[in-house]
Design a protein that fits this description.
Blueprint: E1 5-14, E2 17-27, E3 31-36, H1 43-50, E4 58-63, E5 66-67, H2 72-77, E6 79-82, H3 94-104, H4 109-123, H5 138-150, E7 156-160, H6 168-181, E8 186-191, H7 194-200, E9 203-208, E10 211-217, H8 218-222, E11 229-234, H9 240-244, E12 249-254, E13 259-264, H10 270-280, E14 285-291, H11 295-303
The structure holds adenosine-5'-triphosphate (ATP).
Family: Belongs to the ABC transporter superfamily.
Protein name: Putative ABC transporter ATP-binding protein YxlF
Pfam family, one: ABC_tran
Amino acid sequence: MNSILKIEQLSHKYTSSWAIRDINMEIAQNGIVGLLGSNGAGKSTTMNIICGVLNHTEGDVYINGFDIRTQAESAKKEIGFLPQIPPLYTDLTVDEYLRYCAELRFIENGKIKSAVEEVKERCGIAHFSNRLIRNLSGGYRQRVGIAQAIIHKPKLVVMDEPTNGLDPNQLIEVRKLIKEIALDHAVLLSSHILSEIHILCKEIIMIEGGRLVFADTMDAFDNYMPSNSLMMRMENPPPIGDILNIQGVTRAELLTDKQVRVYFEGGEEITERLVVAGVQQNWQLREISLEKGQLDDIFKTLSSPQPNS
Ligand SMILES: Nc1ncnc2c1ncn2[C@@H]1O[C@H](COP(=O)(O)OP(=O)(O)OP(=O)(O)O)[C@@H](O)[C@H]1O
């Protein structure tokens, strides 16, 4: 079976400098994949190439098995695109605009009405059918932008920073809609905000300086940095000095009168030594858990220049 998206050795040069270099990625099934990177990392360049808006310099892009360069028409039928600035005609009503988008997507005349009704229902904009787009709030405009991206039921929906600039309530609603859409489409969603990708995505692809620096599940990203601290809760905590005496402990701090954070070096076996000491010294240990690396630290580590890059 064809992958929904397959990118091989993709590179693009604007005039004299490379914007992206040797990018490989694959999306095999529905769900949300996050494309994360700082400003200027190469996200929009990659997305524009995937959507056939920009002609790449080197490499191959396949959408559902169709080459975006040599089989552009078939490939583009399988793509919906929501660019950073949604392509809305604000002097049209929601119905007029979506009918126009359906025509652009070559939906047969007899099926346009039902396609428009269905997508409005799906995106929660049916009650605004006759409203001019310019009179909609930012969140509802974004819903119309999403509706035009899925009206032809593409396999892949590409969204460039779709939650940027929304207020907190709109943000929650638009995120919910994107998650619903991802149940029966593959969604590639870009953001420069790690927490946004973390909330929405099951997989993450990170680009920095035009190069791919990480591609795996969100869980693998969370576990990327080995833990160097743990938290202990005890009914009868010892003096901090007793904890510092245990081999491998580098620092310990009291969080509450029953909770201590312990920093360590030399591997996770430290937990065994702490449990043994806790039993021998009657700390009445109730909880001990390793703390994951902070997300922002992982982002910083991955986005700093790699040796030989
Ligand atoms: N039309 C262009 N001509 C020349 N250079 C460009 C052009 N568009 C982008 N670039 C450069 O290519 C690199 C990647 O830009 P791109 O817009 O793809 O990054 P991005 O990750 O989408 O950033 P942002 O989050 O700011 O949109 C940057 O160095 C940018 O300055």
